[in-house]
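Obj: model holo form, ligand = S-adenosylmethionine.
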Amino acid sequence: MRYLGSKTLLLGEIEKIIKEYNGSGVFCDPFGGIGTVGNYMKKIGFSVITGDILNFAHCFKVALIENNGDECFFKLKKF
Ligand SMILES: C[S@@+](CC[C@H](N)C(=O)[O-])C[C@H]1O[C@@H](n2cnc3c(N)ncnc32)[C@H](O)[C@@H]1O
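Output (holo structure tokens):
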């Protein structure tokens, strides 16, 4: 999912600039939207701190950034 203001097309440039300063560590992504940038930084090895005022954006980031494995969905019921 992309929306107006998404940084998807700039991810390579952002990585290049960040790595000029530091190749690892903590990446802070305030106003992080649906987590496009934070998720990318997580994948290349940074710990990510992020947030957004919108609930749906928060849900995206829990799925992409906070979770580290497959969900077990143990509370789902069979019908
Ligand atoms: C341009 S979008 C971020 C796009 C993101 N970097 C990406 O690449 O997908 C800006 C975000 O700032 C969030 N925002 C605006 N005001 C905010 C506030 N006061 N606190 C937290 N988030 C806020 C909006 O909900 C929106 O998701």
